[in-house]
Amino acid sequence: MNGTATATAKPPFGYLAEFESVRAVYKAAEKVRDAGFKHWDVHSPFPIHGMDEAMGLGRSVLSWLVFFGGATGALTAFILQGFTQIALYPTIVQGKPANLNTIPAFFPVIFELTILFSAFTVLFGIMGLNQLPRLNHPLFSSKNFCRFSDDGFFIVIEGRDSKFSKEKTKAFLEEIGAKEVELVEDDA
Amino acid sequence: MSAHKSVKDLPEDGEKFDIKKVSKLLGMLFSVGILTTIACAVIFLNQEWRATMAYSWLFAFIFFFTLALGGLFWTLLHNATNSGWGVAVRRLMENLGLMLPWLFVFALPFVVIPDVRGALWEWMGERREMISEAEDYAASHLETETAEWEEKVREARARFSEVRSGIESGMAKATPGEKAFLQEKLDAETAAFDALKSEDAAPTVESIKAHHMKESNVLLYNKGGFLNMGFWFFRFIAYFVILTLLIRFLRGLSVRQDADGDEKRTMLARRMSCGFLPLFAVVTTFAVIDWLMCLDYTWFSTMWGVYLFAGSALSSMAVLVLVLTYLRNLGYLRDVVTEEHYHIMGKLMHAFVIFWAYISFSQYFLIWYANITEETRFFLMRNTGHWNTVSILLVVCHFFIPFLALLQKRVKTTPRLLCAVSLWMIAMHIIDMYWIVIPERGPSLGAGVVVPGAIFFDVLAFTAVGALLAYIFLRSLGKDSLYPCRDPRLEESINLMN
Amino acid sequence: MGNFFPRWSNLLPLKLAFCLVVLGLAVACAMAYYFTPKYTRVGYMPSQPVAFDHSIHVTQLGLDCRYCHSFVEESPHSNVPTTQTCYNCHSVVQKDNPKLAPVHESMETGEPIHWVQIHQPPDYVFFNHSVHIARGVSCQRCHGQVDEMETVYHAEPHSMGWCLNCHRAPEKHLRPQREVFNLTWKPEDEDRETFYRETADLAGLSYEELLGASREKFGFEEMDEPMSQREVGGVLKEAWGVSPPEGCAGCHR
Amino acid sequence: MPNGTTTADEAMKGPQGVAREPLVLNNRSMNWITERICGVVENRQPLLWWVLFLPSLALAGLLAFCLVYLVSTGVGVWGNNQPVAWGWAITNFVFWIGIGHAGTLISAILFLMRQRWRTSINRAAEAMTLFAVMCAGIFPVFHVGRFWMAWFLAPIPNANAIWQNFKSPLLWDVFAVSTYFIVSVIFWYLGLVPDLATIRDRCKPGIKKLLYGMFALGWRGGNRHWRHYEMGYLLLAALSTPLVLSVHSVVSFDFATSVVPGWHTTIFPPYFVAGAIFGGFAMVLTLMIPARAIYGLQDLITHKHVDNMAKIILLTGSIVGYAYIMELFIAWYGGNKFESDAFHMRILSGPYTTYYYCMFFCNVISPQIFWFRWARHNLWVVMAVCMCVNAGMWFERFVIIVTTLARDFVPGAWGFYKATWVEKSTFLGTFGFFLMCFLLFLRFLPVIAVGEVKGVLPESNPHHGDDEH
How many other β-carbons are positioned within 10 Å of the β-carbon of residue D227? Predict the structure, then answer.
């Protein structure tokens, strides 16, 4: 909207190329990967099966984070219950002793807190790894881009990629089957 | 990402397992099986060892029974859920289930030798004793009891006439209100007296017997409707007849489809499997109630059937993984089964590891928490002394270790690793079954906690049943194609993507 | 079409989250301090209709607690003295002191003095003064150094946790029964021989037995070493068999 | 996968042979799906929405009134007393918590099993879960009497220097239900993020765009994001599955850990879980069959969906039946006098035998009609059975709680329980609150997971059309 004066000084955010179908964007992604680009992404209304391999991405590290999140939860619950029931407030109720032999009775809460902590790790893990929330982004200034959430399939090659060049990249994108290529400025 | 595979590229008649390739193994299994079976037979013939051996045999039998039962379950589930992924391995499930009719042969000692079943299921002997004792008692006491009853009636008559005359004399000078009250009293007295002197109240052999049985063992008497020999035999036969019919019907459909490729057979199998599932549930539940829960007829748990089912489905999936890998190593099923199938089988194993833990924890937990005398016996026996070590071992090794192992995708998709887990799971299932059957032996036979030396019998029985069944299983693999080669869903299955 | 959200909105969520965390911690700390009886009760010092000075009566004049709170040993409730009790002395002493005007007025009209109650357990708590007194819990343990107060105030929180502190470890607070009303008593002042001779009777042991057992347990060597609260309380707890209730039904009946 | 022009009429007849049915009928395009689902949120609501919303609002008001009346007057306005101290309050709690199980079940278990038909119904079912759990939470909170003291259940240090009794099933319940609610909210919200982005991108700048935009977190649909998102979603599904099982198991522990006859039986945990799924699916169908008709979503929520859910109802209903029979068998077989008497009282001689037979008919007999395809494909029959099941599951909880408490060990302590108008109105009010929340959800959020439905279209497979050459 604004950004006309400074846009020339700054490098552009990148090229936004639209593709016809899932199949087309998938094939194109394989080519972009093979061309050796680093800072690029495929935008689609839903996750495309097999796109991680097509883009050459590995497995998400989220599962490890969640494993440790869950372990923290289990430990928290164990310490919370052990500490309060055995050390701080040992009462003999339900005919159960106030020592570690009562551990079966602690299982339900250990389980619940494991799940709770894991779920929080998932939520904040996704937000952290994806650097969300991010409400303002150069891509949003493209009128065309908003169709990514409807039925548009896009490949974005960013300007900060070392292989990026204003002319060649555009030609490359058109060559791999882009329907329309648009230069997105880093204005916002 | 591999290219789409077509059924057309596969051999038209499927792959047949050539048993000649494994003739050495078969020969070994057969000879070991026969030798150990003879040894077992010798032990059974020995009066002194028979009871000890009975438990060993039950342990061996029930372990393999649960495996075969699991084969049937997976076949049923696969058909009923209209599933596509498992077509490639369905024949293996069917073959595993097909061991059920054979297991009847191995169950024969329980039916044929009275001492064997008597040693295992004490209610049989106790019940017989209870009945004969009650009969003797009834026969010898009929006269005295009748005399006693007559005496009682006589006394009551005297008392009744006294009361009646008293009331009647009182009625003469009573107010209307009092009259009604006295009349009521008189009616009650008359009714009580009539009841006592009526023919029904007269002691008979039957009534004395029933009364005596109730007195001597009320629990066994009350359970007589379920725990009696006639019904027990009927159930025993019925279980095997039903299970045999189920598996033969489904496998028959499947094999006939190999020849004609008729889609309708798939539809029929699906419809029938849905209907068979309730039947399967009932048979499984009562079979394990009969054979395992009744090892101690005083103990009970509503969860019992589900608990055995969970272990059965889990370990039979492990067996399927092992058999599959074995066949693939021999060069079969290479084009049909991929790592994706392993992945799903691994996931199912994982699910059942959790399910087993859930069920067994719930069962233990509720009994432990409520702490009611009649229920805790089972766990008192297994959570004290050396058996407690086994219990704790089960918690750690039947749940935590495989759970953590199967958490990783790599383990589920690598056949070698999944086989290791499967072997582990089967070992744990052996221990689980041992832990269910064997602790009952020592106390039942009056030989302390553990019968010394009996473990050799256990190993022997296990080897005998195992080797022979493995022999039969391998041979039955060779009869038909190793996968349903004309199943309409085969293409979907071989292109499986997780 | 440009971005709907301005650029500064990108960092806003993080800033907000940070502020929320700080705010949350602040609120938690504030509540932990200000919403507990430690804060809400302790220090409560209402002005009474008569400016009665405990420090004069107790410390200077040496009046025993029981002179005024006469039923504290027998009754669950500790009574507040009647006007007549005041008049025992003040009909003569300081008769014309203007501070005593409400007392005279009360005496004339028969209307009791409206003392403001300071220590008030909730109605669902059954607290019995007499049992505590009978087992060596001094007034001062719950009401503070009343003997030095010019105006009485709430010295201890009287929260449930505070009660439980003592119920869980009574040995930290017990003293010989004769010293319950001695608000200046210290364990160091206690004479060991007297203490053990008295306590041996309570414990049903001989003096030598009790002394020997304690010597082992508390590790003193000389008889004239000063005694510690641990020793006094520990021995008394054993001797009396004190095991205060820790379950709910002990106080909430 | 053959995908001709299957229409709703053809789908009615069911699958021909073994071919797989398409999940979206009439070959709809992605844009059509977006328009249709977002249209529900963006367009004016149909008259029927208002017709349903206003009475729901009124009933929710009744709930508020009843609760205010309860608190201001005292818990005595409810009919519970000794010996039946739990009565309707806990019956309703277990009932609503059970309803709340289908949502996460559909989302999690069916997701893990790669049952792609879940995509059309999971969003609504999850929303239903949340509202049902809210309704459930009301009852125990107010049942404690002084509900402003309910924070005593949280394990935080306080001036009382005591700690919760972690050996108590009731405390496990607190943990289980609150964990379940939080995880369900996370699951639901995570699934909503891409769809909120869809609505955001369609909004004109304004307050709506601001709100949807804020909650969409600036989602851009990049595959580098989808990668973590998909993994996270999978993990949440994997976590929610045992969580669903645990919640109702823990609820069953409230009963089964005791020694009370009729409560203490080891099959309770799986039996409660099956019952919860059973009742939950019935409620999903009860809500979704009208909703799809009102908003014209028949191409997305097809007969296949109804058929599958009917089958799950049949399955879980039969599992519940298995548990009933096992309970009866073991009550007789176990030889415990009190246990067998408790069941004798339930089915033959007690004051509440009618409830038992209602329960048995509604839960075990009525779903058996789903063995027949015509019944699963006749929406009226499906609705009728679902209503039966909704009622039957309430009866089940009533039978378990009230008949047992009214007739426990000592005849001298027996009693009779009758609910007051306050309890009845409160229960009715929760239905109002539930429906109100659900209607508001329909109004403001995408009722179907837009992105996920697009993902099950044949053309969403990157290899779609690879063979045709």
Answer: 21
Helix (H, G, I), strand (E, B) or coil at C37: helix
Q: Do A104 and B497 touch (CB under 8 A)?
A: no
pLDDT tens, D185-224? 999 999 999 999 999 988 888 899 999 999 999 899 899 9
Provide the shortest C-alpha distance from residue D227 to chain A (in Å): 7
Q: Are residues B160 and B67 in the same domain?
A: no
Buried b or exposed e, range C9-19, using 16+ CB within 10 angstroms: bbeebeeeeee
User: Are residues A104 and B371, on separate chains, in Cβ contact within 8 Å?
Assistant: no
Looking at the structure, tell me whether residues B68 and B144 fall in a common domain: no
Do B318 and B386 reside in the same domain of the chain? yes
Distance from CA of A165 to the nearest CA of B (A): 31
The reported pLDDT for the residue numbered B18 is 86
Does the pLDDT at position C53 exceed 50?
Answer: yes
Q: In Å, how far is D209's CA from the nearest CA of chain A?
A: 11
Q: Which helix (H) or strand (E) holds A18?
A: strand A14-19
pLDDT, tens digit (0-9, with 9 covering 90-100), for D290-340:
888 888 888 888 888 899 899 999 999 999 999 999 999 999 998 888 889
Q: What's the pLDDT tens digit per position in D165-186?
A: 899 999 999 999 999 999 999 9
Query: Does residue B112 sit in helix, strand or coil?
Result: helix
User: Which domain, by its residues, includes B79?
Assistant: 34-121+229-494
Q: Which one has a higher pLDDT value, B46 or B426?
A: B426
Residues of D with CB under 8 A from a CB of B: 17-18, 20, 112, 114, 242, 245, 249, 253, 256-259, 264-270, 318, 322-323, 326-327, 330, 332-336, 371, 463, 466-467
B369 to A104: CB separation less than 8 angstroms, yes or no: yes
Provide the pLDDT for residue B478: 87
Amino acid at B364: Y
Range of the structural domain that residue C148 is part of: 54-80+115-249
Q: Helix, strand, or coil here: A17? A: strand
Average pLDDT in the B243-265 region? 91
String of DSSP letters for C178-225: GGTT-TT--GGG--HHHHHHHHHHHHTS-HHHHHHHHHHHH---STTS
Could you tell me if A184 and A138 are in contact, meaning their C-beta atoms sit under 8 angstroms apart? Answer: yes
Interface test with D, best of A122, A147, A184 (most D CBs within 10 A): A122
Give the C-alpha separation, D187 to A2, whole Å: 38
Residue of D377, D372, D382, D297 lying closest to D14 (CA atoms): D377
Contact B369 A94 (CB under 8 A): yes
Best of B340, B365, B376 to mutate (most A CBs within 10 Å, chain A): B365
C-alpha C80/C-alpha C72 separation (Å) is 10
One CATH from 3.30.70, 3.40.50, 1.20.144, 3.30.1490 for A12-58+138-184: 3.30.70
Q: What is the pLDDT of residues D405-457, one digit of tens each?
A: 998 888 888 888 999 999 999 999 999 999 999 999 999 999 888 888 888 88
Percent of the residues in chain D that have a pLDDT greater than 90, as a whole number: 55
Q: How many residues does chain A have?
A: 188
Q: How far apart are CA B455 and CA B453, in angstroms?
A: 5
**A-chain residues near B371 (CB < 8 A):** 95
Would B485 be classed as within a structural domain?
yes
Q: Does D204 touch chain A (CB under 8 A)?
A: no
Domain assignments of chain D as residue spans, ordered by start:
28-144+179-454
D269's tokens = 């945990």
Amino acid making up residue D171: L
Classify residue C210: in a domain, yes or no: yes
Sheet holding A153-158, edge to edge: A40-43, A153-158, A14-19, A180-184
Q: Are residues B40 and B166 in the same domain?
A: no
- CA-nearest of C227, C46, C250, C234 to C153 is C46
